[in-house]
Structures are given as structure tokens and as C-alpha cells.
Design a protein that fits this description.
Helices cover 12% and strands 39% of the residues. With 118 residues, the protein is mainly beta. It has a domain at 41-116: C-type lysozyme inhibitor (Lipocalin). The longest helix has 14 residues, at 2-15.
């Protein structure tokens, strides 16, 4: 029994206080994302792989994006909830993106990759 008590004391003193573990959260990466703060309106130009150039005005107070499309009427897209990045759509068009990259689709067709104009 005495051996058990001594072993217990040695075990407890060997454990001591656990060292504190520092957690380091990396600073968010700055991507040049075209999404402006929620209180302003900003315009961004995208160039897509299929040659289409889109001029998009993000109107955060209205939760909408207005897209000037070559050879087509201007489209108003409603902002949708997304975990990250942007997502706007209406019954015909859809714009999704994160950072300087986006995809543009028409009538549910395969999306075209787009990138902001530098």
C-alpha cells in the first residue's frame, strides 16, 4: 500500500501544470475581393474566358448587383446567402465568386470563368 502511495505522489508531481498551448489564427488573406463594405456601392469589371466583359455594380444597401452585359439588357440580380464570397442571381443569370475570381452563367448553362480586370 505504501508503494502505491509513493507511486501516486511521484505520478502527480511528474504531471504538474499543463503548459499553455498558444493558438495562432492566421490573419485573413487579402485577395482584392470585389465585394465592398455593406454601406457603399462599387463597380467591378470582369473579363470572362468566353470573351464576355461584364460591368457589375454591387449595391450592398439594396442587396443587389446590376450587370451590364454586351448586346443584352442590363440585368438586376438579387444577393443570395453564401458561406463565403458572393452569389447573385435572378431567373436568367447567376454570378458567383470569391476574391478576384467569379463564374457567370446564363439560363442554367455551364458557368464561364471570369476574373476582375486589373
Amino acid at each position: 500500500m505504501r508503494a502505491f502511495a509513493i507511486a501516486s505522489v511521484l505520478l502527480l508531481t511528474a504531471c504538474g501544470e499543463p503548459e499553455s498551448v498558444a493558438t495562432h489564427m492566421p490573419e485573413p488573406k487579402k485577395t482584392g475581393a470585389p465585394v465592398p463594405p455593406s454601406s457603399i456601392v462599387a463597380t467591378v469589371t470582369y473579363v470572362c474566358d468566353d470573351g464576355v466583359q461584364l460591368q457589375v455594380t454591387f449595391d450592398n444597401p439594396r442587396q443587389m448587383a446590376t450587370v451590364a452585359i454586351p448586346n443584352a439588357p442590363t440585368a438586376e440580380l438579387n444577393q443570395e446567402k453564401t458561406a463565403s464570397g458572393i452569389w447573385y442571381r435572378n431567373g436568367t443569370y447567376e454570378l458567383r465568386g470569391k476574391g478576384t475570381d467569379a463564374t457567370w452563367s446564363v439560363n442554367g448553362a455551364e458557368p464561364t470563368n471570369c476574373r476582375t480586370l486589373a
